[in-house]
Amino acid sequence: MKRYLYYPGCSLHSTSREYDLSARTVCQRLGIGLEEIPDWVCCGATPAHVTDHLLAVALPVKSLISAGKVDGRDVVTCCAACFGRLKAANQEMAEDVEIRAQVKQLLGEEYRGEVRVRHLLEVLLEDVGLQELGLRAERKISGLAVASYYGCLLVRPPKLMRFDDPERPRSMDDLMQAVGARAVGWAYNIECCGASLSLTRTEIVLRLCRDILADAKARGADCLAVACPLCQSNLDLRQAEVEKAYGVRFGLPVLYFTQLLGLALGAGLGELGLDRLLVDPIPLLRSKGLV
User: Fold this and answer.
1) Of 108, 65, 107, which is closest to residue 86 (Cα–Cα)?
2) Rounded to 5 degrees, what are φ and ψ at 189?
3) Using an 8 Å Cβ cutoff, are 40 and 63 in contact?
4) What value does the mean pLDDT take over residues 95-120?
5) How many CB atoms sit inside 10 A of residue 188's CB?
6) pLDDT band for position 49 (cuts 50, 70, 90)
7) Could you tell me the strand order of the sheet in which 75-77 lies?
8) Is residue 17 a contact partner of residue 47, using CB atoms and an 8 Å limit?
């Protein structure tokens, strides 16, 4: 069994518990062991990043220090925002002597960016592999047209993330194809959904979400696959509001890529948290003979 230290982050322990549940289910079925980092704390995400730079670095470093005390395993996370903040903190601690000294004074421990941080997508592609994933699929999700939505955080900035192509990402598309789905080619797969403006500039968010959903629908997508809890919440929660504001109808379920992989791997609905999604995916999945 491949074993990793797991950084769930705040969203996966609260509003996006279905992401955590489905990720653990997929990993268990693939023989991947996840052990939560002891005493992990919030990565700070955008609020810390725009409030205080030292805080934005120290918060993820605190969790990485805890991870480093275990046994040298890679740290795996699912949240695109957490992935970015952990990677950014690692880079700064490795390259910036001044910030490293400030963080050491604040936390009382030295850290030089030694712990490797990876996204679950990366682990599935590199450590499991598409061929193995296809062989493990008990129930091919054939007939399902999936528009993989990467958003703006998962693959950018490229010099920091060093994961997938920042302009033409393929990781989720390749995973979906490996388990039988049709990967939809579309134009808005890396466009921002406006999640950080969700409460302050709702009119902008509605327009951005409309453009994303409209393009996916026009290209023949049955659903969206996402890897970011902020994107999922925005496109799922706001979808009815977008439809009302613009007089359109999308009806596009927004699923985590782990939920779709879990279905293909034979997991039950209760193991994937599908009942927590606002745009109900069950009618679609039933029409495709997947439930």
Assistant:
1) 65
2) -70, -20
3) yes
4) 97
5) 18
6) low
7) 32-36, 2-7, 75-77, 117-119
8) no
Q: In the structure encoding, which two tokens stand for residue 111, read together?
A: 């850290």
Q: What is the mean pLDDT of residues 61-77?
A: 96
User: Which CATH code for domain 2-119?
Assistant: 1.20.1050.140
Is it the case that residue 11 has pLDDT exceeding 80? yes
Phi, psi (5° rounding) for residue 188? -110, 25
Query: Can you give the pTM of this predicted structure?
Result: 0.97
Which helix or strand (DSSP H or E) is residue 182 part of? strand 182-183
* 62 membership: H or E segment, kind and range: helix 53-68
CA 5 to chain centre: 16
From the number of C-beta atoms within 10 Å of its C-beta (0-12, 13-18, 19+), residue 270 rates as exposed
Classify domain 140-287 at the CATH class level.
alpha beta
Element (H, E) at 214: helix 202-218
Which amino acid belongs to residue 191?
E
How far, in Å, CA of 281 to CA of 269, rounded?
11
> Tokens in use for 174?
């390749």
For the chain, what is the mean pLDDT?
A: 96
**The pLDDT of residue 130:** 98
Structure tokens at 13: 């322990």
Q: Domain segments of the chain: what residues?
A: 2-119, 140-287
- The structure tokens 């990781």 sit at 171
Q: In which residue are the tokens 């903190």 written?
A: 89
- Cα atoms found within 13 Å of the Cα of residue 196, Cβ hemisphere only: 11
Report the sign of the C-alpha dihedral through residues 258, 263, 267, 273, in that order: positive
- Residue 39 · residue 46 · CB < 8 Å: no
Per residue in 179-228, pLDDT tens?
999 999 999 999 999 998 888 899 999 999 999 999 999 999 999 999 99
